[in-house]
Structures are given as C-alpha cells and as structure tokens.
Design goal:
Blueprint lengths: L1 H38 L11 E5 L6 H14 L9 H8 L5 E9 L3 E8 L2 E5 L6 E4 L4 E4 L9 E2 L24 H11 L9 E7 L2 E6 L4 E5 L4 H13 L8 E3 L7 E3 L9 H5 L9
Parallel strand pairs: 1-3, 4-7, 7-8, 10-11
Antiparallel strand pairs: 2-3, 4-5, 5-6, 8-9, 9-10, 11-12
Amino acid sequence: PVSRTSELAKKRERRSFRFRLIAFLGLLLILMLAGLYQFWLRDSSLVSVKNLEIVGVSTKTEEGRQIDQAVRSAMGEMTTLNVDPGLLDQELARFPRVASTEIKTKLPDSATVTVVMREDGSIFGEGAGALLIATDGTVLGPADGQESSLPLITDGDPPPANGDSSGDGSAAGTTLTGRALNQALILGATPAAMRPYVKDSRSTPEGVVVTLDDGLTMLFGDAAHADQKWRAAAALIADPNFDTSGYVDLTVPRRPGVSSEVPDFSAGEASVAGATDEPSAD
C-alpha cells in the first residue's frame, strides 16, 4: 500500500508538471502571436488596402476629386487590421462639405469609405461677400455665382472667421448662429421640387418668414419640425384652388392658417434686429 501511494503521488506530480508546462508554453505562444500581430501583421503589406471603394463622392467636380484624393491618401496610411478614423477626419477637415465618414474593411485587402456630403441650402449676404450655406447651416465657402439659384437669408449675424491655417479669414467650415441659423435650417429643409421657387427668408417678431417667387408668404416660426411645415405648405400649393399670392401660417403644421392678406411684420422688426436667440431644436 505504501509503494502504491507513492506511485500515485508521483503520477499526480508528473501530470501537474505537464499541465504547468503546457500552460506556460500556451501563454508564451499567445504572447508571441500578440506581438507578431501588434508589431508586424496589423501593419503588414499583406493586409494593406488595395481595393478601396469610395461612396458618396462625385469626381465630376474639382472639389469632389480633391475629396476623393484626400480619402485615398488617408486610407493609404491604414490597413484592414489597423483603421484610424481620426486620421481620415483630420485629412478631410479642410473640406466643409464633408459632414461625416464611415470606414468598413474586409480581409484581407478591401475597404469601403462612405462619405456623407452636405448639400447646398441657401445664400447668406450679397455681392462679393455672399456665402454658400449648407442645409444644416454650415458655411461652405463663397457663393461663386450661385446666388440666383438658391434662396437668400436676408438678415442675421454673419458667421465668424474660422481662423484656420489658410490665414485668409474665411468663414468656411463655421456654422451660422441665431436668426441666420434659424433661416438656414428652414430653407435647408425645403423639398427639392420646391427649392427653385423659394426667393428668400427674413426674421420677424413671430419667427421666420419665407417668400416664394410668386408672392406667397409663409410664416414658419422657428426651425422645429421644418420638414413637416414644408409638407403642409406643399399640400396647400398643390391644391388648384389655393391662392398662391396670399399668406400661410405654418407654425402649427397640422393646422395651417390661410389668409388672402399678408400681415404687417415690420412693427416689431427693430426688436428682432437685436435678438440673438438660438434656433429651437427639432
């Protein structure tokens, strides 16, 4: 019995030793593979991005070609195992038209970059200082002759210069504020089919007023639920019996108010000129 017990103890000890040895070798292998991945594979040419698809950017324009090249330049510094969205954002920061990006990769060497672009919405200012404004109120840059094709924001504070490295004092990339932003958001929500007929907007004590080129005046109030207000306006205009030379109150889009006479908003415009309220969130 004593020898049998001793033999069993030695077997248990050998099994324990083998288990510790296997565990040690397994841990060593894991560390080696982790090091191999971290310091070689994730940046290896084996997983470099060779098949890149860019979605949302048209190369038919000079700006589109520059954005496309910037995306390719940034992605050339990445692999499918080492993606750095911050690097792409940094490369595209000089393009105010770019709203956001998304990177998707597929092993071993494919990647798709989806770029969300801001759309033209309105014009702020007139003459040489006219600015092109996106539908979300972002300044895209000089209007460059597009004044006649987009509605005009007629009042509000000008956007601040962004102070970027270009040193030209440009406001591109900044966002309108206060009354000007309210108007930009409302004009930006205009349905594509109606946009060519929108003339301008202005601030009044009752809120933003939008004028169509046929004389129709529409009171939107603030920018909240602007899309619903435009749908209500479109439904009224589509009615062949509707007088488009009148006035529509869209502040409550479910119950628009219609009148043949346009109210006089000029009485309180002096007080509006000093207002700095931010637009209401949708």
